[in-house]
């Protein structure tokens, strides 16, 4: 129960990072997301921009910042693809908002919480992508929920390894 | 109002961002009269946001790719050098053989050109290409695009075909100053006209959600077998005709339409592991200077080495070489005649129809009393052989037809 309570001061601690980290980590995530599939294909079941969005949203605990960061990351991803620009932007804006909103209420430094958050938010992002493409825009899309499930698992595992590394970068009082 | 905004500030910002993006999406997507939605093509150029994203992501991505190539290249070069002499020797032999084959093929192509000119049809050949390195992707398995390190400054334009030595790869979509985005043939939104090499069945090639190539909406045909080659048909005005696409992997029923099948194609090019590609920047109904130079060299080589040419022809002809026999016992060197011409049996009573009997026309004197051009019964009886009834030798020995008297 202590995991989910917001009573302790630690739960309200906001992680702060050097400005360079805010610029370079999202950029690195976007660059690696574009480059790694050439090496790992067809096993490219990961979404690094989503993992980074979730990390900063959880750490900053500011829904507006989470929303803006998610939207920016999603728009960049859309711009690199040949699809309509804004689909990933919407999905990741919602993910950033929810991650930051949840981060206010739960103990986000716990690894299990992080794993579950990444898994659930990855599936939510996929569902929003599907909804916007198929139902809002009525665009043809071929879909495999198995792939989305594998991607959610991949994101969770990457988050397990990446979050402790990124934790070392935040500024301690 | 102010308290409402401050109280629900987070939600208001989220809604504002979502609404802005939905409006942006609505401006990019059109609804056709048939009720389908289509994405607005960037006909007027590249959207600024794509340009910005490319400008931000491309430099570090190219740096990573160049670093990887450098490391891999240094490592592999060391091992390559160990066998380079032997490989060089083998390659020289291959070049010599290919030159001779090219000379023969080019002659066929020239003949084809002449025939096409007679028919008023012009086949287009790959005239100029630009070599490029593939260095990045879209980062999403829903969008099978990749980026190459050549752009508008190198003469690239949208809808140019991108190929490798193995087969077709895709077409140029967005062109940036120094880079370009290529839409892979395995993307669901791509399309290429293809033809099955043996059965000559045509279809449209596209990708599925998993990035697998398939020819969709083909009428069911029992002749289509796994392994059959698939080539470009040349009707899409992007890919020249006859380029390799892949091979039929399997045939499945179209889940949506009865009586139709989808042909799953195994790509000839390694679409997941692309490094160097060629962009076809120009197609012309004639050979390029480089091809003509190669042709001249091939013809020169063929003329100076006829023995080699005959050996190559012997290799390509079936049945002349038996791999199980030593070189001196090959059927090609066997001078004995395995099928001596048998003499026909001699007739018991030879006549003018017998083989070898040369027909000698009787010495017919023209009848001064008969009409010109009309044979007398006597002369008719002297030519009893009906048309086509006699052996060729007899026919050849017949007198020429009589000329009409003037």
Helix content of chain B: 25-40%
Distance between the termini of chain B: 122 Å
Biggest interface pair, counts: A-B, 47 and 56 residues
| Unreliable residue runs of chain A | 1-7
Helical percentage of chain A: 55-70%
Into which percentage range does the β-strand content of chain B fall? 15-25%
Low-confidence stretches of chain B: 370-406
Short characterization:
The complex is a heterodimer of chains A (173) and B (406). Chain A has helices at residues 19-40, 48-60, 63-80, 87-105, 111-136, 145-167.
Describe the structure.
The complex is a heterodimer of chains A (173) and B (406). By secondary structure, chain A is an all-alpha fold. Helices cover 70% and strands 0% of the residues of chain A. In chain A, helix 2 (48-60) runs antiparallel to helix 3, helix 4 (87-105) runs antiparallel to helix 5 (111-136) and helix 5 packs across helix 6 (145-167). The longest helix of chain A has 26 residues, at 111-136. Chain B has 406 residues and is α+β, with helices and mostly antiparallel strands. Among the domains of chain B are: 2-39; 48-82 and 124-284, Beta Barrel (Thrombin, subunit H). In chain B, 33% of the residues lie in helices and 22% in strands. Chain B is built from 8 helices and 14 strands. Chain B has helices at 2-7, 9-28, 48-82, 84-119, 289-304, 306-316, 377-381, 392-396; strands spanning 29-31, 37-39, 125-137, 145-148, 161-163, 168-175, 180-184, 192-196, 202-207, 213-219, 229-232, 244-253, 260-267, 276-284. Chain B has a 6-stranded antiparallel β-barrel. In chain B, strands 8-9-10-13-12-11 form a 6-stranded antiparallel barrel. In chain B, strands 1-2 form a two-stranded antiparallel sheet. In chain B, helix 4 (84-119) packs across helix 5. The N and C termini of chain B lie far apart (122 Å). Mean pLDDT of chain B is 77; it is low at 370-406. At the A-B interface, helix 1, helix 3 and helix 4 of A face helix 2, strand 2, helix 3, strand 3 and strand 4 of B.
